[in-house]
Amino acid sequence: MERNRLTFEHILTPAGILSRQSVLIDDDGRISALEDAGDRPSDGFFAVPGMPNAHSHSFQRALCGYGEAAQSKGSARDSFWSWREYMYRLAKKITEQDLYVIARQAFGEMLAAGFTSVAEFHYLHHEADGKQSPAMAQAVIAAARDTGIRLLLLPVLYQQGGFAQPPAATQSRFVHHEIEEFCRLLEQLSDTPLGIAPHSLRAVAVEDLSAILDAVDYVLGAHYPIHIHISEQMREVEECIAHHGARPLEVLAKHAELGPRWSLVHGTHFSQDELALASASYCQVVLCPLTEANLADGIFPATDFQRLGGRWAIGSDSNARIDPIEELRLLEYGQRLRDRLRARLANEQSLGATMWQQACDGGAAALDMPVGRIEVGCFADLTVFAQKGALIGPAAEVLADALIIGGGRQEVAAVYVGGELRARDGTPVGESQDQEYAATIARLL
Question: Do 124 and 254 share a structural domain?
């Protein structure tokens, strides 16, 4: 196989599915041309743009399986808020080496599943003894480098424990009390692609947001991605209304100039007015259906948002299950169950091709990177599916539909980042790290 050419039976492009195409790749790992393959041998069956993962907390991969038992008698009903206690216990213990091992495992699984880039919403900042250090963030950066996934690191600003509430002791590793502390961290990480993430309106005083962004501008310049958790839980919405007299996105819009660099994570309980505001402001909403189901958040009104022309992306969030196909399938099926109608996020031509490309485009905007498209100028980040399982039989034009309805990560044959092979047959390239990961989890949990 030539380093600068990959040939496929079918590819998904913004113009639709094309057959027998070669993807030419330049020395920077970008697509330089698409051309008819002629009689060249094929490197794979069905290639689609590698999916950007627009929201991840990699350390939470370690929690898979924990916190699933029913709460004991007399305790509060199990919810997102009780699940956080398990997360806090884990966060208290993790060292930088632990975080490297866990993030490396999560990033490797992302690659094996077809995610080729990731926006890492990183709030596990300080060392276990409370010392301020860039070491935890550097562990995440090292894990991304060693697996080969493309990384946007989003250091999270976390300053309070609720609306006008001091942070709890369990949140101490997340907190920067002063914006100067936070900006020093950004300066120490400036060799990697960066954005920022005010954690949420409950964790950052929205009245301070303008001054915060001014300070960050001095370090990062005037253009960088901004991500924020918003309207994930109804309790959060109710507390926001009680404190500010308005719903979360309405409050945010009064204190910040919203636009394409803003990614609104979850938006589960947006009102119709908030949906219209997000769409009109050209923000992307980042949806994490598997986590939103696992944590009993609710169902985002995606059909309403799409009808308004809104842009959306997907993320693996808590990383309990890492599979972009399942994220998209649950997103579509949630709308079907709510509306009792089919093909909710499809257009007249397709469901799968439409959803995959829309999620890729939204993810590329969220990461502010030239990814998510098989077209000239974009990075050659590709997910290649084998002709097996759900992809045995369907005609070319419905391959993506079959993938979303009946497929999964088990059909992933190869994953490329910048034209470099990073996973094959469901396994990241390189030596397995499973035993070290298992030993780390056993010691921590």
Answer: yes
pLDDT tens, position by position, 186-209:
999 999 999 999 999 999 999 999
Residue-wise pLDDT for 18-67, tens only, equals 999 999 999 999 999 999 999 999 999 999 999 999 999 999 999 999 88
Q: 168 and 180 share a domain?
A: yes
> Strands 284-287 and 311-314, how do they pair?
parallel
Neighbours of 327 (CB within 10 A): 27
Tokens coding 64: 């898979």
**Using alpha carbons only, what angle is made at residue 249 by residues 248 and 254, rounded to the nearest 5 degrees?**
100
d(CA 213, CA 217): 6
Residue positions annotated with a catalytic role = 266, 317
Tokens 């009946």 correspond to what residue?
406
Mean pLDDT confidence for 366-392? 98
**129 in a structural domain:** yes
Instruction: Give the DSSP H/E element, type plus range, for residue 86.
Output: helix 80-93
Residue carrying structure tokens 């196909």: 325
Write the pLDDT tens digit of every residue in 211-265. 999 999 999 998 999 999 999 999 999 999 999 999 999 999 999 999 999 999 9
- 337/379 same-domain check: no
Query: Structural domain of residue 21, as residue ranges?
Result: 5-49+373-428
Distance CA 175, CA 192 (A): 22
Beta carbons of 7 and 21 less than 8 angstroms apart: yes
The CATH code of the domain that includes 401 is 2.30.40.10
Same domain for 81 and 16, yes or no, is: no
DSSP 333: H
Q: Name which of 46, 41, 37 is nearest 17 in CA terms.
A: 46
